[in-house]
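Inputs:
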Amino acid sequence: MGSTECTMIFSQKRAETRSYKNLMSHQLKNIKFKGHLRFKETNGKYVFLSDGDKHPDEMDKLKQFFRKHHGLYKFLKYVISPLYFDNFLNKFIENNVEGKEGCYINLGSGSLSIGENIINVDISDYNNVHVVCDVSDLPFVDSSVDVVFILSVLEHIAEPSKTVKEIYRVLKPGGLVYCEFPFVVGFHAAPYDFNRMTDVGAKELFRQFNSVDVRVGSGPTSALLWIAQEWVAIVLSLGNRYLYRFWLLTVMCLTFPVKYLDVLFNFFPAAKNIAATFVLVGRK
Ligand SMILES: C[S@@+](CC[C@H](N)C(=O)[O-])C[C@H]1O[C@@H](n2cnc3c(N)ncnc32)[C@H](O)[C@@H]1O
């Protein structure tokens, strides 16, 4: 089956009337799937993985809860978490996605929706996910995507170079990748946690791209806060994992405002030495 036929199947499915599907068809109208792949439609999502591909982790139930309640998840990520996020992502979306006709995908989106016309792709079928697949093996045809977002995902992939190759493959010439990745932060599985990268390491990983720019995302205060919160929770847990979770959440709620010092420190040149996260923008 060629890619056109596959697109036709998706078009027929679009005729179905549930409003969730209508929203999806609006988002999926510019995407082209590789023709030969098998998929099934489950809960209004296009699933390219077999039933056996479940990836539970220790905190899965808690994360499923927060991801089902997107508002709460966003609040935890952008307010309570130790990471300070500036306005860079919003500006990037304003400049490169909003009001434009194109194909935009967010890899490893979780249930986080960052734009109405951006397709959410994840290995888990969270609410708001449109395409369920492994980001190391994307179902999209070559040179078919205008912008790829991949936020806090590469550290969860065993072989990130495979994913970066896939991103390069599906991007149109001149297309953009926006990648957020951690450097100095603690262990956090989703469903696994494999690696950390420096700014130079990321440039090397994305060396195939024509241009690559890396900047500090969440700065040194965010890094220090994450590590300090973990340290306090570990010490006060007395070795009990339930107490550890209780203290971690309590300490996070009490200390998160400290992260806003990064409004200033992000701009210090040495901030990159212990930045919590970096943001990479690459052009194919
Ligand atoms: C830390 S969360 C980030 C979620 C969201 N991008 C954000 O910024 O809040 C990592 C996400 O990557 C997804 N993920 C991990 N490994 C994946 C893989 N191999 N393929 C697709 N998604 C994956 C997880 O299911 C999870 O939703």
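Residues 1-20 have pLDDT under 50 and may be disordered. Flag for discussion at group meeting.
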